[in-house]
Each structure stands twice: as structure tokens, then as C-alpha cells.
Amino acid sequence: MLTNFDIERIAKKLELPIIGVFSKNQLPNIERRIGSYYVNMMDDDKTDGEGNNGSHWVLVKIYTDFDREDGETCEDAKGHKICNALYFDPFGLGMPLAVSSFLKPFKPIYCSNRVIQNIKSTQCGWYCIACDYYLENMQDTENSTYLEDFSKFLEMWSNDPKKNLTLLKKFFKPL
After folding, report:
1. Which pLDDT does position 86 carry in this prediction?
2. 3-state per-residue secondary structure call for the chain
3. C-alpha count within 13 angstroms, C-beta hemisphere, residue 12
4. Cβ neighbourhood burial of 55 (10 Å; 0-12, 13-18, 19+)
5. For 94-106, what is each residue's pLDDT tens digit?
6. Is the pLDDT of residue 69 over 80?
7. What is the reported pLDDT for 107?
8. How far apart are the C-alpha atoms of 42 and 139, rounded to whole Å?
9. Is the dihedral of CA 89, 93, 95, 98 positive or negative?
């Protein structure tokens, strides 16, 4: 399983728009900005201090299709909301309350519901990084939206989570 330090290092190396790596209970104190949030489903007081906690990683992405740049505000010059959000969980589970509350200003919130990862696998961080990388670097067309690209990303996986581990390795091999 990837630690928070691993995720930060890999995301920066791949030049992903990472805002940070957080435990779900830290979200109420985090400023909402355009970019990627890697969220651990275990509260931060349950970790061992080294980023290891045996929990599960998900990806939360706040985005706008107007400009795929990170760190920008979610309002235009007139104060109108221009951002959307998506939630990727390779287990295909629904959002916990802490994440749902964090994303409350963004409606609708697009969520994955496909089971991509085997429940016994520890590759959740890698799946989240793959999703983020795909959304930022592998757009289906020049004018595709994040939602269209998110759908394409979800479609590329098999219905067999064991086969998806092989697909995941192939995804990262050229990187």
C-alpha cells in the first residue's frame, strides 16, 4: 500500500495537480481549490505516524472544464460557481459523510460505482494516481470534458478485479 509520502512523491513526479494527501477527518479544515485530493478513509489519529494505516485511498477532484489548471478559484470574476467535482473509489463504494460534506458546494458530484479493485488488494493508491493521470494527460479528444474522460477511464477496466491488476501494471509501465 502506498503511504501519503509515496502518493505525494509520485503525483509530483507525474506533474499531477495535487492539492494534498489527507485523512477524511481533515477535510473540514481544507480550502477547496481546483486540483486533486488524495483521501485516506481512516482518520488521521489512527495512523502510525509514518503514513501507514492499512486503510483505503480514494481520489477527489475539483475541476473546471474552462481551464484545466490547478490552484485556481472555483468562482468566476462575478462570483458564479464554475467548478464541478468527482469522486473515484476503486472499490466502487459510495462517499463517506466527511467527503460528501467537503464536496457539498459542488452539485452534481460524479462518482464511480464500478468495482475495479479486488477487496484484498492494496493497490488503491495506484488506481487513484492512474485516474488522476488519465484525467490530466490522456484526454479522449482535445475538447473533451473531465466527465467524459472520467467515463472513458472507468470503461477501460475489466469487470474482473483480478485482471485489472494486470491492466494497472500495463498502465504505469510506459510512465
Report:
1. 97
2. CCCHHHHHHHHHHCCCCEEEEEEHHHHHHCCCCCEEEEEECCCHHHCCCCCCCCCCEEEEEEECCCCCCCCCCCECCCCCECCEEEEECCCCCCCCHHHHHHCCCCCCEEECCCCCCCCCCCCHHHHHHHHHHHHHHCCCCCCCCHHHHHHHHHHCCCCCHHHHHHHHHHHHCCC
3. 9
4. middle
5. 999 999 999 998 8
6. no
7. 83
8. 32
9. negative
CATH number of the domain enclosing 20: 3.40.395
Write down the pLDDT at residue 142. 76
Q: In this structure, what C-alpha cell is assigned to residue 42?
A: 481512516
Is a pLDDT exceeding 50 seen at residue 70? Answer: no
**Residue that has been written with the C-alpha cell 460505482 in this structure:** 113
The count of domains in the chain is 1
CA dihedral 65, 69, 70, 73 (to 10 degrees): -60
**Span 164-173, mean pLDDT?**
95
For residue 19, report the phi and psi dihedrals to the nearest 5 degrees: -85, -40
pTM: 0.89
82 φψ region: left (φ > 0), alpha (ψ -120 to 50), beta (else) = alpha
Range of the domain at 90: 4-172
